[in-house]
Specification:
Number of strands: 34
Radius of gyration: 34 Å
Structural class: alpha/beta
Helix content: 25-40%
Number of helices: 30
Shape: globular
Oligomer: single chain
Length: 861
RNA sequence: GCCGCCAUGGCGGAAUUGGUAGACGCGACGGAUUUAAAAUCCGUUGAAUGGUAACAUUCGUGCCGGUUCGAUUCCGGCUGGCGGUACCA
């Protein structure tokens, strides 16, 4: 018995079609070399950010981007493209491991259960994915190639001359020693202060700290030996090669700011027998450097501190070390510091200036030491005022503002040979002087740090690395993948070795060599998954040459710099995933493994969906909407359509359950264009769908003309709107068309297929169902396998157009004229309008502006 | 603090190149159908003023100013909200 409350029987046919697509592999995408591959079709590679399959299941935010890409993918397919639109799982990650620690259940089991649930949910929404290309970052066949890519990094260095990665074998051929080579590898071992989380027993990347802190985990600084990736070598290219990408400017800017390029100079200061180098963006203010500050962690502090100041310095360093990052940064902007008692020599004028230590200077940026120019730097100014240090003006502002704390450009004063020079020229002059006198040089600095790549966890890719006599070496490629050993105890050891160290059999690779026990971060798998989609079952390579070239589009004439045509996902990955993936892609490009220099040509960020109360959806607020509930209540088509109708894809917007009802009502109207319920409650073909093609009388011909007009307007607008991802306005147009069709006494059945084709990418189930039941020849062919309709310009043109008449810019009347009416004719007609006459009476007409087909504006006074 | 984005009816939003502001949907109100309800269909719906009415006039896209025959759209100056980032030398 069907539920009478449902306005159309979606429950009866949605799962039926989903099963049909699954069984017939309707959305299978052929690769070069496949039987059904058609080389004449252009490729379209469309990518969703693959989800982490959490235990909570799909969130309504997921189908937002996924529906958008599905619409575009189905549309491109109907337009004759070979569409690659795959899905997969970013399945390594801490939640599964934390759950394993709590319950003892292996993370692989939890992960598989969660994936099954996610896959079921996605299939219930009818997405046209090629499920044969599903990838899973935890799959041994995937891990194998993640590790292989790591070894490419490990076996490469950055050639400064070519600005490209190159194999270390080049250096071996030149006779470099092992130590020298280890110092330049793109994947290298580094002992440095890292972000250690005692609560999780692992280190974190700089980029991850805030996220985990917000979740209540603790993070502290601790010196540790870690694997790092030399992303800083690519800093310039990561900035410059953003230019040709079709990304939101705001995301490009976010990446540029994150990389944080600043140009300036290194200046060497002598402190008795020692030399300290500082970085400054304002070398032109060197004459105004009245003191110097070292970071408390600076290695030279102990050596230069005078005995009189030793106790004060030690106390200060101890107090800094005990402070959390939060206390040192956010909460406490008050300057603090202590003198070392030492003095440095200002290289440009020989002045003896005091050397202080203060925590406003960071060891992690620049050289960990600064020259303080209090007159022209806010922080130095504040510090100098607090500790009564001298302030000397060396820049004269251009526009009479106060020089104290002035940080802008101006003219150099009190600066010897620089006096009178503009800031820009003074910078050049002083750098030349520093070079000539061996006191410094031009220098570019970046905020970007090398990428801390090792984690002390179980549920991640082990490093394919062996240790012997304190030296590391790669596991032979033939032995990949290196999988985690089976273990019952996943608890972190609390030591830098991580839980794998507990697997004593596993770590002993041979009598003399042991395995690396660290694992890779979750980013590793997500850095290259889009490539694996192109050739997911390849066992010989991470991607075949043919597949790589075809899906990169380098085989055709287009000069795309990015492999993926469109990437849709959340803005939260603006600097992490999107930067890391670009870095890996460039390395693989440099080594000749991929043909494009960038992974993602066009990027679109979907906006967050808020709860009905306008707040971010969260369990604690109880405003979370579960897609499963919406599907069972209104159907998958209604959910898809609603998420697209809410507003622009990129915009943040609140959920409204009433809105779902609205689009559901629209789908019901479309359904009732074709069917009506008989006495028995069965849906039978609507009596208004007349079979006669030509209208018999004049009135009928007139309405048929109107119906054709709205239909072809819809074909035009929906196609254009899909191309520019403006789905809400496309839906609005289809609603107009449906309303017009619904009002017609008789509806030629021949008009239905084009409307259904337009709606098909948005609401694939209901449209296929209606189509399959229509008494037409094409009922046997699925809409998604048919061609996208073309509109006929002739149906759109009206014989007469309405033109607005304004007097002095204010709307005063409307006239109807022939579409090709002459300008004079329009002007004359406009001036005959009664209301227009009233408003121009007693005035002189100065000018008449005619915008053809739109308006007439009479200027009179 | 700095950088970026945004601001339109009761609500979500539309206006694509400077040319009729408020498409489409929700909600609300009135009506048809119904014993009644649900569902469905029809009509009205930015505000104010005048008119029995058709209609007309004025105001109106966060605020102030500018450019223009004409500004939601362009420019300058604010205000509020959201996001990023934060002693980066």
């Amino acid at each position: 018995m069907s539920d009478q409350r449902k306005p159309f029987p979606f429950a009866d046919f949605e799962s039926k079609w989903q099963q049909h697509w699954d069984e017939h592999k309707t959305f299978h995408t052929p690769n070069p070399g496949d039987e059904d591959f058609d080389a004449s079709k252009p490729k379209y590679f469309i990518l969703d950010m693959f989800p982490y399959p959490s235990g909570a299941g799909l969130h309504v935010g997921h189908p937002e981007g996924y529906t958008a890409t599905d619409i575009l993918g189905r549309y491109k397919k109907m337009n004759g493209h070979n569409v690659l639109h795959p899905m997969g799982w970013d399945a390594f990650g801490l939640p599964a491991e934390q759950y394993a620690i709590k319950t003892g259940q292996h993370p692989r089991i939890t992960t598989e259960q969660n994936i099954d649930n996610f896959r079921r949910q996605l299939k219930s929404l009818g997405f046209g994915y090629d499920w044969d290309r599903e990838v899973n970052t935890t799959d041994p066949n995937y891990v194998r190639w993640t590790q292989w890519i790591f070894l490419q990094l490990y076996n490469s260095y950055f050639n400064e001359e070519t600005q490209k990665a190159a194999p270390i074998s080049e250096l071996e051929a030149q006779g470099w020693s092992r130590e020298q080579i280890d110092d330049v590898r793109l994947a290298f071992i580094h002992e440095a202060p890292v972000n250690w989380s005692p609560s999780m027993g692992t280190v974190l990347a700089n980029e991850e700290i805030e996220e985990w802190k917000a979740k209540g985990e603790t993070v502290e600084r601790r010196p540790l030996r870690q694997w790092m990736l030399r992303i800083t070598k690519y800093a310039d290219r990561l900035i410059n090669e953003l230019d040709p990408l079709d990304w939101p400017e705001s995301i490009k800017l976010l990446q540029k700011n994150w990389i944080g390029k600043s140009t300036g100079a290194e200046v060497h200061f002598d402190i008795e027998a020692h030399q300290v180098t500082v970085f400054t963006t304002r070398p032109d203010t060197l004459f105004g450097a009245t003191y110097m500050v070292l970071a408390p962690e600076h290695p030279l502090v102990q050596e230069i501190t005078t005995s009189a100041q030793k106790e004060a310095v030690d106390n200060y360093i101890a107090s800094c070390a005990s402070k959390s990052d939060l206390e040192r940064g956010d909460l406490n902007k008050d300057k603090s510091g202590v003198s070392t008692g030492a003095t440095a020599t200002n290289p440009v004028n020989g002045e003896q200036i005091p050397v202080w230590i203060a925590d406003y200077v960071m060891m992690s940026y620049g050289t960990g030491a600064i020259m303080a120019v209090p007159a022209h730097d806010e922080r130095d100014f504040e510090f100098a005022n607090k500790f009564e240090l001298p302030v000397t003006q060396v820049v004269e502002p251009n526009k009479g503002s106060d020089w104290q704390g002035f940080t802008g450009n101006g003219v150099a004063v009190n600066s010897g040979f620089l006096d009178g020079m503009k800031t820009k020229d003074a910078k050049k002059a002083i750098i030349q002087w520093l070079r000539d006198n061996n006191k410094g040089t031009f220098k570019v600095n970046f905020k970007l740090r090398d990428w801390l790549f090792s984690r002390q966890r179980y549920w991640g890719e082990p490093f394919p690395i062996l240790w012997e006599n304190g030296n590391h070496q790669a596991v032979p490629e033939s032995e990949l993948p290196v999988l985690q050993p089976e273990m019952d105890d996943f608890k972190p050891t609390g030591s830098p070795e991580g839980p794998l160290a507990k697997a004593t059999d596993w770590i002993n690779y041979s009598e003399s060599s042991k395995r690396e026990t660290n694992t890779m971060p979750q980013w590793a798998g997500s850095c290259w998954y889009y490539m694996r989609y192109c050739d997911p079952r390849n066992t010989d390579r991470f991607i075949s040459k043919e597949a790589e070239e075809y899906w990169s589009g380098t085989s055709d004439a287009s000069s795309a710099t990015g492999m993926v045509d469109l990437y849709v996902g959340g803005t939260e990955h603006a600097v992490l995933h999107l930067l890391y993936a670009r870095f890996w892609h460039k390395v693989l490009h440099d080594l000749g493994h991929v043909s494009t220099i960038e992974p993602f040509q066009k990027l679109v960020n979907q906006g967050l969906i808020l709860g009905e109360d306008g707040a971010k959806m969260s369990k604690s607020l109880g405003n979370v909407v579960n897609p499963d509930d919406v599907v069972s209540e209104y159907g998958a088509d209604a959910l898809r359509l609603y998420e697209m109708f809410m507003g622009p894809l990129e915009q943040v917007k609140p959920w409204q359950m009433k809105g779902v009802e609205g689009v559901s009502r629209f789908l019901a109207k479309v359904w009732r264009l074709a069917f009506e319920q008989n006495q028995e409650g069965e849906w039978v073909l609507s009596s208004k769908l007349s079979h006669q093609e030509a209208a018999s009388d004049h009135e009928g011909a007139q309405t048929e003309k109107e119906l054709l007009k709205v239909l072809h307007e819809t074909i035009k607008k929906v196609g254009e709107d899909i191309e520019r991802l403006s789905f809400n306005t496309a839906i609005s147009q289809m609603m107009i068309c449906t309303n017009t069709f619904g009002k017609a006494e008789k509806l030629p059945v021949s008009l239905m297929p084009d409307l259904l084709k337009c709606l098909n990418p948005f609401a694939p189930h209901i449209t296929e169902e209606i189509n399959s039941r229509l008494p037409i020849a094409a009922a046997n062919t699925m809409l998604c396998n048919q061609d996208w309709p073309t509109y006929n310009e002739a149906y759109l043109i009206e014989d007469e157009v309405e033109i607005v008449v304004q007097v002095n810019g204010k709307l005063r009347g409307k006239i109807t004229v022939a579409k090709d009416a002459a300008k004079d004719e329009i002007e004359a007609l406009a001036q005959k309008d009664e209301n227009v006459i009233q408003h121009t009476e007693g005035k002189t007409i100065r000018k008449i502006i005619v915008v053809p087909g739109r308006l007439v504006n009479i200027v009179a006074n």
